[in-house]
Amino acid sequence: MDIGHPDNFCGGNFRDWLEVNLTPACNAKCSWCVENHGWHPKEHANWFKICQTIVEEGKKNVILLGGEPTLHPDLADIVEELAANDKNVYITTNGSMLTPEWVRENLNGIHGVNLSIHDCDSHKNEEITGITLDFQALRNAIYELHDMGAEVRFNCNCIQGYVDSEETIRRYIAWAHRMGADSVRFAELKHDDNSFVDLAKVFNYEYGLNDDPFNCGCNKNCEIDGMPVNFRQMCGFQTSLRPKPDNPQRVYKPVVYYDGKVYNGWQLKKESDMDQRDLERILENVENGHITAKEAQILINRMLPEEEEEGTSEDAHCVY
Predict the structure, then answer these.
(1) Alpha carbons within 13 A on the beta-carbon side of 5
(2) What is the pLDDT of residues 41-99, one digit of tens each?
(3) What's the CA dihedral at 117, 123, 128, 130 to 10 degrees?
(4) d(CA 242, CA 295)
(5) How far apart are CA 50 and CA 65, in angstroms?
(6) Is the peptide bond before 4 cis (omega within 30 degrees of 0)?
(7) E strand or H helix that includes residue 282
(8) 275 in a domain, yes or no?
(9) Count of H helices and E strands in the chain?
(10) Structural domain span for residue 177
(11) Using CB atoms within 10 A of its CB, is residue 136 exposed (0-12), middle (13-18) or buried (19+)?
């Protein structure tokens, strides 16, 4: 049995974190988003029920995700309630809602904000996400977050033609400095081999970057040009460009969904809800080496009427 590197979530790290799928709503169009195949419960619990479930899980660090969590109509109540229960509350957002006024009204008690911006050129980021951002307004919102005592990290997925080299990464870091970011994460793409940027090759294997993240570690921390940087590499479970362990043992995190229930990992779409496009994606994943033929057969079999209440567990997002 192969066990992942202890710094990886699948190897047992980040046990005191809880991820929350707060809403399926999103105003972006990111092609790689894991929620493109995500399963979504029909029920929507009220915000207090969701908070109760989160508190009962007993984790200190809570990260609000989606969808786009800033679109939840009761976000301010959720953040305040969790903070009142001594939780470190984080949120990952595309930044589309962030202004100083909105931050003051909706993020009172927030511990940290992860801003997903994938190019320091606003027009290129819009090409990627479909979101138009006013960088000046965003910088003012970051100042407001700092005044509230919150940390701000920029998340950048490295994509061919955008941030895809040491030069463009250092340019992004310089821009993040000017924007007031406290740190930056650069991540490789999941399940998108065509646009994949190999960070190990970009930096010639510095900073612990490697060709086998499952065994050698997929999360690496360093400092570049005075900025704390985290690199997130994809292993063979997320890209066919890396070796896939033959007999792996992985840790699946509990995830709270917006129905107020706890699930074993992030859930894939209920196979009975799949259409022809979903079947084609399954077959493409077999051809690309993302899943085995046996795994594909299991997914296809579940497209029949007999099915479970929820979808099947997906591997960890590792968004910390």
Answers:
(1) 16
(2) 999 999 999 999 999 999 999 999 999 999 999 999 999 999 999 999 999 999 999 99
(3) 100
(4) 19
(5) 13
(6) no
(7) helix 276-287
(8) no
(9) 10, 14
(10) 2-269+310-314
(11) exposed
Q: Is residue 84 part of a domain?
A: yes
Count CB-CB contacts under 10 A for residue 80. 17
CA distance linking residue 307 with residue 29, whole number of Å: 29
Interval 279-294: pLDDT, tens: 666 676 677 665 667 6
The CB density around residue 104, as the number of other CB atoms within 10 Å, is 15
Q: In terms of DSSP bridges, do strands 313-314 and 266-267 run parallel, antiparallel, or are they unpaired?
A: antiparallel
Q: What gap in Å lies between CA 179 and CA 215, rounded to an integer?
A: 35
In a domain? residue 320: no
| Tokens 């510095």, residue located | 206
Q: 262-264 and 254-257 as β-strands: parallel, antiparallel, unpaired?
A: antiparallel
CA distance 243 to 220: 19
Phi, psi values for residue 17, rounded to 5°: -115, 145
How far apart (Å, rounded) are the C-alpha atoms in residues 47 and 76?
10
Residue 55 · residue 61 · CB < 8 Å: no
The CATH code of the domain that includes 240 is: 3.20.20.70
For a pLDDT cut of 70, what percent of the chain falls above it?
85
Token couple for 181: 């970011």
Residue 133 and residue 154: Cα distance in Å, rounded? Answer: 14
Burial of 14 per CB tally in 10 Å (0-12, 13-18, 19+): buried
The answer to whether 182 and 145 are in contact (CB under 8 A) is no
> In one letter, which amino acid is 155?
N
DSSP 51-66: HHHHHHHT-SEEEEES
Q: Whole-angstrom Cα distance, residue 51 to residue 236?
A: 35
- Amino acid identity, residue 16? D
Q: Is 243 among the domain residues?
A: yes
Cβ 236 vs Cβ 243: under 8 Å: yes
Distance between CA atoms of 70 and 303, rounded to whole angstroms? 33
Q: Which residue bears the tokens 């009220």? A: 46
Total structural domains within the chain? 1
